[in-house]
Structures are given as C-alpha cells and as structure tokens.
Specification:
- By secondary structure, the chain is of the alpha+beta class.
- The protein has a single domain (2-79), classed as RimP-like superfamily, N-terminal (GMP Synthetase, Chain A, domain 3), CATH 3.30.300.
- Helix content is 40%, strand content 29%.
- The protein has helices at residues 2-17, 49-66, and strands spanning 22-31, 34-42, 74-79.
- A three-stranded mixed beta sheet has the order 1-2-3.
- α1 crosses α2 (49-66).
- The model has no long low-confidence stretch (mean pLDDT 91).
C-alpha cells in the first residue's frame, strides 16, 4: 500500500503545486466497517474550506484515473492542524 500511496502523492503534488497547495500526508486507514483515504493538505498562511473543496475537485479525477486502490474507500481531504496561533 505504501508504494500506491507514494504514487498518489506524486501525482497530486505536481497538480496541486500550481495552486500553491502542499500535500502534507496521505494515509489509508480502516475504521470500523469503512476504509478512509486521508489526504492532509497545507498552504502557506493556512488553508480554508473553499480551498479544500477546490482541491477535492482536483483530486477526485486524478484518483479515478490512477485507479490504484482496489478496496472501497471514503475520500477524506482535510487541512493540517496548526494549533493555537495567538
């Protein structure tokens, strides 16, 4: 699975880089009855919900084209935690 995740990350990085979005990490996790493909994104000065939605719309067709994961999964695109910035 690690090789597949690395291929996905490489494919996403080149496209998302154009939008100044950083792929922080990609994991495939099983929770309960479900599998999750979690893609954590970041951006200089943080990433907002609109950017997450835009990135998800970019990511979906790339994943469909690559078709590397045989199991059913839920795509979970989220932003990197930043902690309290006070």
């Amino acid at each position: 699975m690690e090789v597949k995740l690395e291929k996905i990350k490489e494919a996403l990085e080149s496209t998302l880089k154009e939008k100044e979005i950083i792929v922080d990490s990609i994991t495939f996790e099983h929770e309960g009855k479900y599998n999750f493909l979690r893609i954590v994104l970041d951006k200089v000065n943080g990433i907002d919900l609109d950017t997450i939605v835009m990135a998800t719309n970019i990511i979906n067709p790339i994943l469909d084209k690559l078709d590397l994961i045989d199991e059913e999964y839920i795509l979970d695109v989220l932003s990197k935690e930043r902690g309290n910035e006070e």
